[in-house]
């Protein structure tokens, strides 16, 4: 496919933008570290999910839907999960199932496609044990006091991804120095479980049951579903060290390969109103809470206005600007009768921007230009514009105002149409906030102008869609 050429991606491993060339264009393979499911996902967690969704969409476009495998895991065994389940007095399974379900609902609202495979750590324990056995057998891991540890000095080029030498790391590291470690940098592959913690029969002849360390989970899931060497590995910048460094060490030493993944991509960090997001500062924003005040499209748009490698400062002002843009686009879409045409292809400028290391701000600039063209040239430009926005994951079908008879009235009385549209939106907000008194008041106010509202449930989404007509 000619279009697949010139996809440039910044590779953390080489510290430069490189042309992406897959190992096999018939089977392009990407792994992204997914959430640890113990609590609602926050807006920082949403960043890699949205960013790599854009890359997934782009790869599918360039190589064909059937030729791209995207694996994003769910970490459902972790100390934080154990602690939270005990705190709430629920079973671990109940907590992880509930949290995973909530995560799926949240990111679906952000227009995120499901990955091709979503493996769960607890379903890959045998694969983890096999990797651990292989590492012991070839001298890269050892057993000590019921633990299995990775022997970091056994791998001379450990630290290549984060660009640190072993000596530097040893000097600067604040790793917990347990007495059973041969070297302070050695990290856990397997550890004993205390009573009540999830446990499995241990590998390597260890008699007590135990559980895996975090890093080995991703090596096992990536290896099983994508092979010993694959194309792209992604995650947030905070994962470069130690998580990704350790994934690389485990996978390369177990499989005796030169690389684990060939392109390593990392999104920048997100902070809130200029401060690091943290529970103690009280500025911890979950996707779930955001979606009470803002549409999924506004959240997605606000995320993609910043290039994925830059830090984002997540602010209310930014959300308001994003909302205003989408409202303007909704009005233009309404005016040009914007219905998404199945055959329309996205704009070349948008695709080219994304092919340059996922330059979403530039792609959005292009969407702005196209919106302007639509406003002046009408529907001839609308197909490509809407197809481009849909390609970036925006829910353009909902951009149309819920007032479906507005077009007719607009011809005779544009002011009325605008007023009704705004009041219908206010009423929808009031209903969402369960302020039914206000919702009824708006209905009555409109009735005095001869406008009759009709609410109907959208059979697909279950949402209430309001239409209106003038009383005869
Ligand atoms: P965790 O559940 O903490 O392992 O994080 C899941 C994903 O979210 C990882 O790829 C993290 O790098 C990413 N992540 C966590 N916090 C932030 C943040 N504030 N900004 C950007 N990415 C984040
Ligand atoms: Zn991982």
What is this structure's SSE topology?
Elements (H helix, E strand, L loop, with lengths): L7 E4 L4 E4 L8 E5 L10 H21 L4 E5 L6 H10 L3 H18 L15 H13 L3 E4 L2 E4 L15 H7 L14 E6 L17 E3 L1 H13 L3 E7 L3 H16 L5 E7 L2 E3 L14 H7 L2 H9 L7 E3 L1 H20 L12 H8 L4 H18 L4 H10 L14 H7 L1 H19 L3 H13 L2 E7 L6 E7 L2
Parallel strand pairs: 3-4, 3-9, 9-10, 11-12
Antiparallel strand pairs: 1-2, 5-6, 6-7, 7-8, 13-14
Helix pairs in contact: 2-3, 4-6, 4-7, 6-7, 9-10, 11-12, 12-13, 14-15, 15-16
This protein binds adenosine monophosphate and zinc ion (ZN).
Class per helix and strand makeup: alpha/beta
Straight-line distance between termini? 58 Å
Average predicted local confidence, pLDDT: 91
Strand order of the largest sheet: 4-3-9-10
Helical fraction equals: 40-55%
Share of residues in strands: 5-15%
What's the total number of strands?
14
Shape: globular
Radius of gyration: 26 Å
Largest sheet: 4 strands, parallel
Molecules bound to protein = adenosine monophosphate, zinc ion
How do the helices and strands follow one another from N- to C-terminus? EEEHEHHHEEHEEHEHEEHHEHHHHHHHEE
What would you say about this model in short?
It is built from 16 helices and 14 strands. The protein is α/β, with parallel strands linked by helices and 472 residues long. The strands form five sheets. It has a four-stranded parallel beta sheet with strand order 4-3-9-10, with helices on both faces. It has a four-stranded antiparallel beta sheet with strand order 5-6-7-8.
């Amino acid at each position: 496919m000619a279009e697949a050429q010139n996809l440039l991606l910044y590779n953390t491993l080489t510290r430069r933008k490189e042309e992406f060339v897959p190992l096999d264009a018939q089977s392009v393979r990407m792994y992204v570290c997914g959430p640890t499911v113990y609590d609602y996902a926050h807006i920082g967690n949403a960043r890699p999910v949205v960013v790599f969704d854009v890359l997934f969409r782009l790869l599918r476009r360039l190589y064909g839907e059937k030729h791209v495998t995207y694996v994003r895991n769910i970490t459902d065994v972790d100390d934080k999960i154990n602690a939270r389940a005990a705190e709430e007095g629920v079973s671990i399974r109940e907590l992880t199932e509930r949290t995973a379900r909530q995560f799926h609902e949240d990111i679906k609202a952000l227009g995120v496609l499901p990955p091709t495979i979503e493996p769960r750590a607890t379903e890959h324990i045998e694969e983890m044990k096999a990797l651990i056995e292989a590492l012991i057998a070839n001298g890269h891991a050892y057993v000590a006091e019921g633990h299995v540890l990775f022997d970091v000095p056994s791998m001379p080029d450990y630290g290549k991804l984060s660009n640190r030498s072993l000596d530097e790391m040893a000097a600067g590291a604040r790793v917990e120095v347990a007495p059973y470690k041969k070297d302070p940098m050695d990290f856990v592959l397997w550890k004993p479980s205390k009573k009540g913690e999830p446990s499995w029969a241990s590998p390597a002849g260890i008699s007590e049951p135990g559980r895996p360390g975090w890093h080995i989970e991703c090596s096992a899931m990536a290896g099983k579903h994508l092979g010993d060497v694959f194309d792209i590995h992604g995650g947030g910048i905070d994962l470069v060290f130690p998580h990704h460094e350790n994934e690389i060490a485990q996978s390369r030493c177990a499989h005796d390969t030169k690389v684990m993944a060939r392109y390593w991509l990392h999104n920048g960090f997100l902070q809130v109103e200029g401060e690091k997001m943290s529970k103690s500062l009280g500025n911890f924003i979950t996707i779930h809470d955001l979606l009470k005040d803002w549409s999924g499209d506004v959240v997605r748009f606000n995320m993609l206005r910043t290039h994925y490698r830059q830090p984002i400062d997540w602010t209310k002002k930014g959300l308001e600007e994003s909302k205003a843009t989408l409202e303007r686009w909704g009005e233009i879409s309404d005016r040009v009768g914007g219905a998404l045409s199945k055959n329309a292809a996205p704009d070349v400028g948008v695709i080219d921007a994304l092919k340059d290391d996922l330059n979403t701000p530039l792609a959005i600039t292009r969407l702005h230009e196209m919106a302007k063209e639509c406003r002046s040239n009408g529907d001839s430009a609308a197909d490509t514009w809407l197809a481009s926005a849909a390609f970036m994951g925006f829910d353009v079908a909902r951009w149309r105002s819920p007032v479906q008879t507005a077009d007719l009235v607009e011809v005779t009385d544009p002011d009325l149409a605008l007023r009704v549209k705004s009041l219908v939106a206010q009423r929808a907000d009031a209903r969402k906030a369960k302020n039914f008194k206000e919702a009824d008041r708006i209905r009555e106010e409109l009735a005095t102008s001869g406008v009759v509202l009709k609410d109907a449930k959208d059979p697909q989404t279950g949402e209430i869609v309001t239409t209106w007509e003038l009383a005869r």
